[in-house]
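haha ok so turns out i had the wrong file open the whole time. this is the CORRECT one, sorry everyone. sequence first:
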Amino acid sequence: MSTIETRTTPRLQFGWEEWLSLPDLGVPAIRAKVDTGARTSALHAFDIETFGPSSRPKVRFTVHPIPGREDLVIPCSAPIIDRRDVTSSNGETESRYVISTTLDVAGHAWPIEITLTNRAQMASRMLLGRQALLDHITIVATDRFLQPELSYDVYHSARMRTAQPARALRVAVLSREHNYSTRRLVEEGEARGHTVEVIDTARCYMAINALAPEVHYDGKRLPRYDAVIPRIGASITPYGTAVVRQFETIGTYCLNGSAGITASRDKLYAHQLMARARIGMPNTAFAASPKDTGNLIGLVGTAPLIVKLLESTQGKGVVLAETKKAAESVISAFRGLKANFLVQDFVKEAAGEDIRCLVIGNKVAASMKRSGAEGDFRSNLHQGGTAKTVRITREERETALKAARAFGLNLAGVDLLRSENGPKVLEVNSSPGLEGIETTSGKNIAALLYKEIEAMVRPAPVRRRKPR
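then structure:
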């Protein structure tokens, strides 16, 4: 650990060029030219963009610490402390953002101010001005590297991923509703120092081209986001997933991808995916022709049966047929409405209860047992059900994780039934609500969600492919 410099620190000697590090920005090694003729230090930065509220503005940018290696990219962000006009040695004046960060040289550290600018044409990626030089530093203008030399090899080490500092992110929540889940995502994101913007998915529109794909909103191109959290409503699934797909095309990290959202909303395809992954689920059958009704029921088993619309949500469009005759009547009615549906075996031993496992990344973050309202076989909280905490078995945990992975989802609500033959997956929800699971478990699920996002978008330096 480096210590903040004090006046009692022994005197240091700097040459006209020195190795140093900027730990707050995740830059462990950079060569800087020492220039006492310059007042403020300057750092070579690309993609400079402001974000955050006007009362606490921030700037994000990328650093290329190695000359000639534009493929090595370190994303950074910091609060803006000033904006100044800086005149270069050739007489050109430029308005630059000013940030404060920690300078570390040979274990001695102190805060300095840095301006952000494009120094691509300069031999040094950083200029160290006189404001950064403390009284005990002596400059020897005829020498260089009087302090211990560092190496660019550090950028290729495994430690770089875990050594990256926390940085403020710009996050978009794609949602048409300002409900509990959306509010929690905004509150928790801002509490962690991020800027979170709620974007109405239906009001987004897209410029689709090979060179510069864009997403527009209210007449303006949306800025570059570090991450997108999709909360796509069932009524706009096709358009919502198209918007998510556009963000994926741009290169934005999306917590849940468009393919996983699409698959989870198509119940027939979802069951086929789970069958392919050998995930336990109730016996399920599907047919298009009314002539196959008898055989369809026979494939599932005997009554009682569940008849479920393919696009049902929150327990709507799910009917329990207690006799074969009732099942035939419901199937006939659904076919008369030209609706697509599944027929499933009713798991009696579940007794109107299911388990919601909330999967975040590679972990089950929380789980709860949901019970249906009196006289209702559906356990959805939206249908008047109740919930309480539950301890799940290892097999149930593994089943939930396996189901989320089958859809490629980083956030999933996996609904399980406890049957005599082990856990059976009823549904995988790609936009699970946070209210029930946070209230029941007492856990800060939104915080766990942001930890996952932060881990994914604060990686080791990115080595972009060089154009051929």
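The chain has four domains: 3-163, 170-264, 283-346, 349-454.
again sry for the mixup
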